[in-house]
Design goal:
The protein has 249 residues and is α/β, with parallel strands linked by helices. Helices cover 35% and strands 24% of the residues. The radius of gyration is 19 Å and the shape is globular. It binds adenosine-5'-triphosphate. The site of adenosine-5'-triphosphate has 11 residues, from strand 2 and helix 1.
Length: 249
């Protein structure tokens, strides 16, 4: 069986008397979409913050690509390829889609000063940036300023930037938020393909998207994992139906 890319073991985080995450263990395997669902206040965002490094767990461990990253800060984890996507807007609205990705390529290459070449003609930047846009299906929109892209296209562009920065896993916190039904459908199709690039930990309230995409689902309630399994397992789990899907079991 494939080694997990990300492995969380027994993460607990308390705020005063509240256990926001309570002994949470889960993993993310290569090529999968693992959805994390639960009612408001269940601790999903708190967990994402702990993975990204912006919150320290009280106890427990986080292993990424075989390394314990618990002592590392946000930038170090991001440099290893573990970054949050979508929350911190990484786009410069007035720049074209291509130029936005070029900035990420440049940041990765660590070459911020190029005195002798006009930046848009620098093929060491344009070619890899264009390749990223092709991978996310935005090559035809390369020249369009980020501000003029649709909401869904901006999500795609943010993914292209994350790929250019070397993401080895995606932490997606509610990517469907603010999307109309058509946009959600398009983004669902895109995320479906994206799992081949890097596995995705997906926090999402849109259950249609979750059921369409997830290889596995973990359900958090009051900070605790009450179930992990396939879509079928979760749909049929009596505790989940009672606690989250709002049904009488
Ligand atoms: N910095 C903080 N200080 C105190 N309490 C906090 C803090 N951050 C989160 N909480 C509390 O921890 C609990 C879990 O919150 P969290 O935002 O992680 O839930 P969530 O599952 O992401 O909810 P939602 O689906 O509404 O985004 C909530 O009761 C919240 O009020």
């Amino acid at each position: 069986m494939a080694e997990p890319v990300l492995k969380l073991s027994n993460l607990t985080k308390t705020f005063g008397a509240l256990k926001a995450t309570d002994d949470v263990s889960l993993d993310l395997k290569p090529g999968e979409i693992h959805a994390l669902i639960g009612p408001n206040g269940a601790g999903k965002s708190t967990l994402i913050h702990q993975i990204a490094g912006s919150l320290r767990p009280d106890t427990g461990s986080i292993r990424f690509l075989g390394h314990d990253v618990g002592a590392l800060g946000v930038p170090e984890r991001a440099r290893m390829g573990l970054g949050r996507t979508f929350q911190i807007s990484s786009l410069t609205p007035e720049f074209s889609a291509l130029r936005n990705v070029m900035l990420a390529v440049q940041a990765r290459q660590g070459t911020s000063f190029r005195f002798f070449r006009p930046v848009m003609r620098d093929r060491t930047l344009t070619e890899p940036a264009m390749a990223m846009l092709e991978r996310v299906g935005l090559a035809g929109r390369a020249a369009v300023p980020a501000a003029e892209l649709s909401h869904g296209e901006r999500r795609q562009l943010e993914i292209a930037i994350a790929l250019a920065l070397g993401s080895k896993a995606f932490l997606l916190d509610e990517p469907m938020a603010g999307m109309d039904p058509e946009g959600s459908k398009t983004l669902t199709g895109f995320l479906d393909q994206l799992r081949a690039e890097a596995p995705i930990l997906l926090v999402e309230h849109d259950m249609d998207a979750v059921f369409a995409l997830a290889d596995r689902i973990t359900v958090l309630v009051y900070g605790r994992v009450i179930a992990t399994g396939t879509v079928e397992d979760i749909r049929n789990d009596a505790d989940v139906r009672r606690a989250y899907l709002g049904e009488e079991a």
